[in-house]
Specification:
Layout: H1 6-23, E1 34-35, E2 41-42, H2 44-57, E3 63-66, E4 80-88, H3 90-95, E5 101-108, E6 111-119, E7 124-129, E8 133-136, E9 139-141, E10 153-157, H4 158-163, E11 175-179, H5 182-190, E12 196-199, E13 203-204, H6 205-217, E14 221-224, E15 238-239, E16 242-245, H7 250-256, H8 258-263
Parallel strand pairs: 3-4, 10-11, 10-12
Antiparallel strand pairs: 1-2, 4-5, 5-6, 6-7, 7-8, 8-9, 12-16, 13-15, 14-16
Helix pairs in contact: 1-2, 5-6
């Protein structure tokens, strides 16, 4: 993969490799979890992978934003920042559902430009940079080229579906599949394994930056609920939501969620 981010991609691969070794020590569904504020689970795997990623990724002069690290706001003064989630989908990991992943995003001047995602349960690896394209399990891939919502596969948040947030999308010509881990859903869209994913509820940068970088690397469409490009490494990393699809579905996706776009307010 020829890229001006070749060194970054090498480091991402090293980080994913280190995470793979750690996950070999754990059996999904047989893992003890503690609970952070807000009832979010955390496991020994979350912390071990966070430490391994920091060791493999971070270099002098770069910033760091991770779900499992205290936020160091010195990142705001750095043009190059890592935005990572050592284990996105911890609930699924604890339950034994194969919908969790390691998510590594790289941001340059606020733009997601490279990313890597690895699902230890399915052994899938996604790696890409905006100037080099996307690899899925080492082979070139790209988002769906579908141009109609008819028959499209949309990946939805399992928790959002359970709450009833997706009732409005029932009885349509597209298929909705509930799934955990927003990062993994974005990765699947990046490689054309699903057509669309979106979340209409707030997500943190570490949840979505790597996946968004992968979709963009493949030539797909990514937007905030404010109809803007995703910018990252903000003081408040909470986003109102995110949309992603193959490039030819942009207008259909925006029309589908139009009421939510009008109501959305930028995160502060």
């Amino acid at each position: 993969m020829t890229s001006s981010y070749a060194d970054i991609l090498d480091r991402i691969q090293a980080g994913l490799d280190a995470a793979r070794v750690i996950f070999d020590r754990f059996t999904p569904g047989e893992v003890q979890a503690e609970f952070k504020a807000g009832h979010d689970p955390v496991t020994e795997a979350d912390r071990a992978v966070d430490a391994a990623l920091r060791q493999n990724l971070l270099r002098a002069g770069e910033g760091w934003l991770s779900e499992e690290s205290a936020d160091d706001l010195s990142r705001l003064d750095k043009p190059r920042v890592w935005v990572v989630d050592p284990l996105d989908g911890t609930r699924e990991f604890v339950m034994g559902l194969p919908e969790f992943c390691v998510s590594i995003g790289f941001v340059e001047n606020g733009k997601p430009v490279a990313g890597g995602i690895y699902n230890p349960a399915t052994k899938e690896t996604f790696l890409g940079a905006v100037d080099a394209g996307l690899l899925y399990n080492g082979q070139p891939a790209h988002p769906s080229q579908r141009s109609s919502l008819d028959g499209a596969l949309i990946l939805a948040s399992r928790s959002e579906v359970k709450r009833g947030d997706w009732k409005q999308f029932e009885d349509t010509t597209f298929k909705v599949r509930p799934m955990g881990s927003v990062a993994y859903k974005l990765a699947l869209v990046s490689a054309g394994l699903a057509d669309i994913t979106f979340t209409l509820t707030p997500k943190n940068e570490w949840d979505v930056v790597a996946g968004a970088a992968l979709v963009l690397s493949g030539g797909g469409f990514v937007s905030t609920l404010e109809r803007t490009d995703l910018t990252a490494n903000r003081r408040n990393p909470l986003l109102s939501g995110l949309l992603a699809s193959g490039p030819l579905l942009k207008e259909q996706v925006l029309a589908l969620v139009e009421p939510h776009l009008r109501l959305a307010e930028p995160a502060r």
